[in-house]
Amino acid sequence: MGKYSCEKCAKTFSQKSHYDKHLTRKNPCEIQTYKIKSLIDKAVEEKLIELNKKLISNNTENNITINIIEQMTEQMDISKMSKLELLKKCKELGIAKCSSKNKSQLIQLINGKNKIVEEPSTSNTQIIEVNTTNVMVNTIDIIPIYKLKVLSLFCGCGGLDYGFHQLKEFDVMKSYDSMKHAVETYNLNFTTKAEQFDVKDILTPDFNLGFTPDIIIGGPPCQDFSIAGDKTLGDRANLTETYIDIICKYKPLYFVMENVPTIRTIGKSVYDKIIKKLKDASYGLSINVIYMPDYCIPQERKRLVIIGKLGGVDGIFDTPLIKAKNPIKSIREYIKKTNIDVGLNGKEHIYRHPRNYSRRGIFSIDELYPTVRGCLRKMPPSYEFHEGDTAKNRDSVISPDWNIVARIQTFPQSFKFANKNNAIIIGNAVPPKFSEVLANVIITHHTTS
Ligand SMILES: C[S@@+](CC[C@H](N)C(=O)[O-])C[C@H]1O[C@@H](n2cnc3c(N)ncnc32)[C@H](O)[C@@H]1O
Predict the structure, then answer these.
(1) Which atom of ligand 1 is nearest the CA belonging to 221?
(2) Which CATH homologous superfamily contains domain 146-449?
(3) For a surface tag, which of 32, 74, 75, 353 has the fewest beta carbons within 10 Å of its beta carbon?
(4) How far does residue 49's CA lie from ligand 1's centre (Å)?
(5) pLDDT digits over 228-280, tens only?
(6) Which helix (H) or strand (E) holds 125?
(7) pTM of the entire structure?
């Protein structure tokens, strides 16, 4: 066995000089781990299809699902438990003196105990030989098929997470945001609970996430890169780099980063740095400026979306994103196409407070709404009509409340808000309808490539 091992291709070398030579090859080696994983997945899937066919022909109703020992459901579930639930579990397992332990220590104790007490029973299981590994197939228990584990950072109220919660192929394991009210709203809507947490702490040495993410999603704060900001790159700009450092720490198979397109100009120094870090970490990048009305979202919002795939080629998601388009040209067209009541009470003109009075504030439903912002101001009595305004009569204009902008952002009617800072968290969000597109594009690629 060689002493030196290449992190990318797992080749080993007994001599350091050979190892160093390997690392500085002209054509760098490829990352193999994800290829091995997909080979295993494919082989297991084929074997399961074969077995299912056999069972169906034997007229049995047993569902076959896989239980890869390293991914016992038990382990997946405990990472989502609260401290109280973990303490209860410890008690059940007879683990003593645990009340002073933190969450990750409790998880470790339970995992250690499970390995000893939960020997897989052989009575209902078969070991099936597949090309690359032995896999337990349990014909009695129904165990969920492998889901991509999602880590969501800067989750806000969950606009970007929404689509990943909708698809059974994803398991949103943890979501973090530092804003209390955003987390409160998030937790009214999704079964996996978000935590109020400073994402920077993930990079501290004693942080334990409790699982290995297959995909990290997030929209780090973009105010420092925005035209509307004061254009100085401060702490918030640093959080974009922090986000990329976290991706490089866990090296998930996929990641998604959402930001403003002007990160490439106003934030050029940060942008160049993060792209270099991602390329050095072997990510293939699909970088697209998304015009939201192309995806049936009735506002002129543009966002930069980077989708990364470890060991992938650049641009693999560009065509799928183009194919997923479903464009609209106005709010009226949106209402007609989706049959969604935006809540305008019959009004055909909407007010958005202009940043300065050289710009107009009134927009017709025969055009798109401008980008939804976190500040909602009613039309002031002193408002002087602008020549570009689509109406010059106050009575035909509605000043939208957060409910209306939530609909324009495509939050479904059923989405609940905690009623605190709603306008801010709605303005910050990725339109949920676009997050559905993202989740679909990624899972389609994952299951067909
Ligand atoms: C652009 S918003 C993200 C919106 C979210 N992607 C969505 O679709 O709803 C950025 C978020 O980062 C959060 N944030 C800012 N600094 C943070 C930090 N240090 N740790 C965690 N979250 C932070 C803010 O509270 C805000 O919700």
Answers:
(1) 10
(2) Vaccinia Virus protein VP39 (3.40.50.150)
(3) 74
(4) 42
(5) 666 666 677 789 999 999 999 999 999 999 999 999 999 999 999 999 999 99
(6) strand 125-129
(7) 0.71
